[in-house]
Each structure stands twice: as structure tokens, then as C-alpha cells.
Specification:
The chain is α/β, with parallel strands linked by helices and about 400 residues long. The protein is about 40% helix and about 25% strand. The longest helix has 17 residues. It starts with a helix and ends in a 9-residue tail after the last helix. About 45% of the residues are buried. The protein binds adenosine-5'-diphosphate and magnesium ion. Magnesium ion binds next to helix 4.
Length: about 400
């Protein structure tokens, strides 16, 4: 009995490494928050110690642990017992988090409280960039400050979709400089955009630039951009699950993935790939968006051109919510060409879909990290008081 359980206990622990505390940028296992994790007769029981009992991330961490555990083969029920860390456990955790932060090769200016969502898809042409741009626009329209990082280095499309003409500028001097994102006011909020397409005027020059920095372009964008304040950072990922994805997981472990799919896409294959990526990179899948879900003709009849249920199936398979289904709308394409995202055209039904997805993101799927009572604030105060982190004491 013992040996079979030992195997599944280990598998459970591995799965829990996919649960990242977004404030601390490390997974709950390595942070010492998992006191025990056992699988017995199809039932997973996880004891999770929170830094403080009233941690605002409480329900999110619990839901993430439940999702990660229930995805394991052979697990039918999950019980999460929440506890609170002792003072010693808490200081060990803070030491670990500070050490981890100091080890990170990246010093980004992405604020600790910003949630980073990478929109990814198995293949190109599913409308990922269109969805990302409109979702970012809808989030900004609701009064938030939203960064938009176009990580599709070769196939950048964000500037065109937003009708941005400007160029990115650098601030600072030769030794110490940073890139200033291009800002665009949207409703009560703001978009801050960084894209390869905003870097150089001449196409030739752009290609040369790309050749120089391609392999490290995303890292440059993460390290060298002065984002200022941000509520969300949305990353438009290149198609596929290549180096840039894994790099992002390594460089910015608190990144969460949103998978964009079409009803036609073989949900099983996309799910398998996404789950595989999540495992390798320990990225959490925050949700699924189905695009091109249906078409409504001028007579009001709805056609499901690409089949039904793909988004729901994929969401169930990766254990994440379906954030929304975006219908086909020719204005979505022309909105892109005229640089006025359809999310702003409130007379279009599809604009309501984006507004509703933005609302769900903020309220349920990836709520803003409260800075009042929890760990990020503690960490910042510690950094201020103690200076650079020392390695954690051997435990
Ligand atoms: N919901 C939609 N309705 C109509 N056209 C769409 C929709 N989503 C995307 N498109 C169109 O599909 C094409 C591919 O979209 P794009 O966002 O560039 O995809 P990706 O970034 O996945 O390659 C574009 O011409 C775009 O305008
Ligand atoms: Mg694209």
C-alpha cells in the first residue's frame, strides 16, 4: 500500500509546484506552504499554510490547489485544509522569497501587484492578437491601467490593431536607460504598449534590430521597459509553445496563461500541450477563451460554423474556467484595420462579450492582488528595511 501511495503523493507534490503565489513569484511547495499532500483511495488531501489567515489570496490559492490536484489521474476528490504559518515558518518563507527574487536574472519594473497574463494558443490564426488587444482595451475602458506586451517578435500586429503610429522612446543616459511604453488613454483607463512594431521606422532597420535582439527580445522588453504603475500586463504570445513561452515561465514565474482556442481546434491536443507547458514551466492556466464561436447573420440567426463545445471541453481538460466565447464579427477584423478596437464600439454585441470577459477576469479569474494585508507588502517593507536579500539559512 505504501509504495503505490508514495508514488501518487510525489505526483501530487509535483502538481502543486504548478501553483504559484503571484505575489511571491514562487510555487507553494518551494515556499514551504504545503505542510502535507497525500492521495488515499482517490482522495487528495492537502494541508496548505497561508502566511496570514486573512490572506487576500486565500480563495485563489485554494482554488488553484484544488484544480492542480483534481487534474491528476486517479484523483476524484480534493480536500484543502487551510492553516496559518507560525512566525518561524513565515520568516523562512520570506527568506526564501527574498532569496529567490535576488536570484532572478531579471530585474523587471513590472510592479509586484500587477497580474501578468500571457495569451497563448497552439497555432496561429485563431485570433489571439485580436482577442488580446480587445480584452486589454475592455480592461482599460473599465478604468484600469493595462500593459500590453507584443511578444510576437516577427508577427507583431498590436500596433496596427490599435492604430498606433508613434515610436517607443528611451529615457535615461547611456549607462542606464529604459524604454518608455507608448500610452493610449482608453475610457477612464490607460493602455501602455510595447511592440517590435514600434521600435524602428524603416522596415530594413527593424529587421536588422530584430536580428540583433531576437533571441533576447522578450527579455529586453521585460527588463528594460519602464512600465510605471500597472494593474494587468497582457502578453500577446507568438504561436506555438516554443522557447519564448518557456523563457517567460523562467523569467517571470508569476505569469499565468490564458489559452485562446477556436471551437474547431482539436481541444485534446491543445489541452495536452498547454498542460505539458504548464508542467514544464510550472505556469498556471488561468482560463480559456473561445474565439470565432458562432456567427449571427443579419436576420439574427446564429450559426455555429466551427462546431460546438471546444472551449468548454478544453477548459474542463485543463481544469480552468471558460472566460468567454467571442462570436465571429466582421467588424472585429475591420476594427483592427482601422485601429479602433471593436471592444470600444458598444453598439456591437461583441463589445459586450469583451466587457463581460474583462469583468470576469477582474472579479473571479485573476482578481487584482490586494496589497493591504499580505505578503507582497511585507516583502517590500523588508526590502526597504534590510536592503538586498541574503541567501536563506540552510534548513
Ligand atoms: N471573432 C472574430 N471575428 C471575425 N474575425 C476575426 C475574429 N477573430 C479574429 N479574426 C480575424 O482573423 C484573423 C487572424 O486574427 P489574429 O488576431 O491576427 O490571429 P493570431 O494572432 O492568432 O494569429 C484576422 O484577420 C482577424 O481580423
Ligand atoms: Mg497574432
Amino acid at each position: 500500500m505504501g509504495s503505490a501511495n508514495a508514488g501518487s503523493d510525489q505526483a501530487l507534490l509535483d502538481a502543486l509546484r504548478g501553483v504559484v503565489d503571484p505575489e511571491l513569484g514562487d510555487n507553494v511547495v518551494d515556499l514551504g506552504m504545503v505542510r502535507s499532500a497525500r492521495v488515499e483511495e482517490g482522495r487528495a488531501v492537502v494541508e496548505l499554510a497561508l502566511t496570514v489567515a486573512s490572506c487576500p489570496l486565500r480563495s485563489q490559492l485554494k482554488a488553484d490547489v484544488e484544480a492542480a490536484a483534481s487534474r491528476l489521474a486517479g484523483v476524484e476528490a480534493v480536500e484543502v485544509r487551510l492553516g496559518e504559518m507560525s512566525a518561524e515558518e513565515r520568516s523562512a518563507l520570506m527568506a526564501r522569497a527574498r532569496w529567490k527574487a535576488s536570484q532572478s536574472p531579471l530585474r523587471t519594473e513590472i510592479p509586484a501587484r500587477a497580474r501578468v497574463l500571457a495569451l497563448a494558443s497552439g497555432k496561429g490564426g485563431v485570433g489571439k492578437s485580436s482577442v488580446t488587444v480587445n480584452l486589454a482595451t475592455a480592461l482599460a475602458a473599465s478604468g484600469l491601467t493595462v500593459g500590453l506586451l507584443d511578444a510576437d517578435i516577427w508577427g507583431f500586429s498590436v500596433p496596427r490593431l490599435l492604430g498606433l503610429q508613434g515610436r517607443l522612446e528611451a529615457e535615461g543616459n547611456r549607462e542606464s536607460w529604459s524604454i518608455v511604453p507608448l500610452e493610449k488613454p482608453v475610457g477612464q483607463g490607460r493602455l501602455k504598449v510595447v511592440s517590435m512594431g514600434l521600435l524602428a521606422d524603416q522596415e530594413d532597420e527593424a529587421i536588422m534590430w530584430r536580428g540583433l535582439v531576437l533571441s533576447r527580445a522578450v527579455q529586453h522588453f521585460l527588463e528594460d521597459v519602464a512600465w510605471g504603475d500597472l494593474d494587468y500586463l497582457l502578453v500577446d504570445m507568438p504561436p506555438g509553445t516554443g522557447d519564448i513561452q518557456m523563457g517567460l515561465a523562467r523569467m517571470l514565474p508569476r505569469t499565468e496563461m490564458v489559452i485562446v482556442t477556436t471551437p474547431a481546434a482539436a481541444a485534446e491536443r491543445v489541452a495536452a500541450r498547454a498542460a505539458d507547458m504548464a508542467r514544464k514551466g510550472f505556469l498556471r492556466v488561468a482560463g480559456v477563451i473561445e474565439n470565432m464561436s458562432s456567427f449571427t447573420c443579419e436576420h439574427g440567426t446564429e450559426y455555429r460554423l466551427f462546431g460546438t463545445g471546444g472551449g468548454v471541453r478544453l477548459a474542463a481538460q485543463v481544469g480552468a474556467p471558460l472566460i468567454g466565447s467571442v462570436p465571429l464579427d466582421p467588424e472585429l477584423a475591420s476594427g483592427g484595420d482601422s485601429g479602433r478596437p471593436v471592444a470600444l464600439r458598444t453598439e456591437r454585441p461583441v463589445a459586450k462579450v469583451f466587457a463581460e470577459m474583462a469583468r470576469r477576469l477582474v472579479t473571479e479569474v485573476a482578481p487584482l492582488v490586494e496589497m493591504s494585508g499580505c505578503t507582497a507588502r511585507m516583502l517590500e517593507r523588508l526590502e526597504d528595511a534590510l536592503g538586498p536579500a541574503a541567501p536563506p539559512a540552510a534548513s
